Amino acid sequence: MDAFYASVEQRDNPSYRGKPLVVGGSPNQRGVVAAASYEARKFGIHSAMPSVTAIAKCPGLIFVRPRFDVYREISTSIHAIFKRYSDLVEGVALDEAYLDVTDNKQNIPYASTIARYIKTAIFQETQLTATAGVSINKFLAKMASGQNKPNGLTVILPEDAIAFVEQLPIEKFHGIGEVTAAKMHSLGIHSGGDLKEQTLSELTHHFGKAGHYYYRIARAEDDRPVEANRVRKSIGAETSFAQDLSNVGQMLQELEQIAQIVEQRLEQHETRGRTLTLKVKFSNYHQITRSKTMLALIIELSTIFEIAKALFESIDLENRSIRLLGISLSNLDNAKQTQVIQLPLFQNAGIIF
């Protein structure tokens, strides 16, 4: 979906239309942006940005509190549209899903045709726009979905897959964040073509287990199946810092903002957890985790931050700087979770919305 939360708010309140708007915390608090309208994005505002930073970029920015009950209801309606064509639907978030339409219910021969039908139905039934990427696997469909937003449709044919990946800037790759992209740049890797020139041993040497993933996607390979009814085992958020943090106060401020994002995601998925895990990666790439399990469900932001802060303060930080912080909740309590159904995906026709 295109700027989903923000687009819903603009749809439901005509006075918001055409104006820079974010869904998220108040600028008077230590809030974070959950979603930004396309008008706000022109100012460089994006999700997970601190609210104070967003208001500094755009003083006239409109802040709206999230209405996750409304977003969930719309998401359910959109998934019902997906199910008219395939039962192989893997929800990634309220606003995103993978569809395997190889054997679709309406026996339509082209995935791109199905994508057009779905886009039309979504707009007719919700007055919201969606962007689709169509290709032969998850990675390529995901990359295609980011090419022509908003309200776009991009198809990557099998014969075009390798050429598409080779010309793609490395920072555009799904699964490669800002910090990893910077490291790749330092190694002379600026595009998919550059990445493809690296051997598997070189990539695993520099990036550990993730090197296997990078090696395969550089060759347009991705055999992950579309998992219908996928069970979510944990919910979390993490931030990699462009510059390593050495100030404890700044670390705690970042940790609080990450806790707010985790709280938002718990709300989105209507779940809570009992085990909180803190992830810390130091400047030398050494990584540690600390966990605590509670008898009661962890629900409120104050509790998430309090536990994460206590775990953080138990770590020896003397003369050490940090490049990444993360918080996740597991041992989830979610009555809606169902059994994972794994299905094969071999050169299938895939769509991501």
Automatic annotation (TrEMBL):
It comes from the Bacteria. InterPro entries: DNA/RNA_pol_sf (IPR043502), DNA_pol_Y-fam_lit_finger_sf (IPR036775), DNA_pol_Y-fam_little_finger (IPR017961), DNA_polymerase-Y (IPR050116), DNApol_IV (IPR022880), PolY_HhH_motif (IPR024728), Rev_trsase/Diguanyl_cyclase (IPR043128), UmuC (IPR001126). The active site is at E96. It is an enzyme of class 2 (transferase). Transmembrane segments: none annotated. GO terms for molecular function: damaged DNA binding; DNA-directed DNA polymerase activity; magnesium ion binding. Residues 245-272 form a coiled coil. Its cofactor is Mg(2+). Belongs to the DNA polymerase type-Y family. Poorly processive, error-prone DNA polymerase involved in untargeted mutagenesis. Copies undamaged DNA at stalled replication forks, which arise in vivo from mismatched or misaligned primer ends. These misaligned primers can be extended by PolIV. Exhibits no 3'-5' exonuclease (proofreading) activity. May be involved in translesional synthesis, in conjunction with the beta clamp from PolIII. Monomer. This is DNA polymerase IV. It comes from Nostoc sphaeroides CCNUC1.
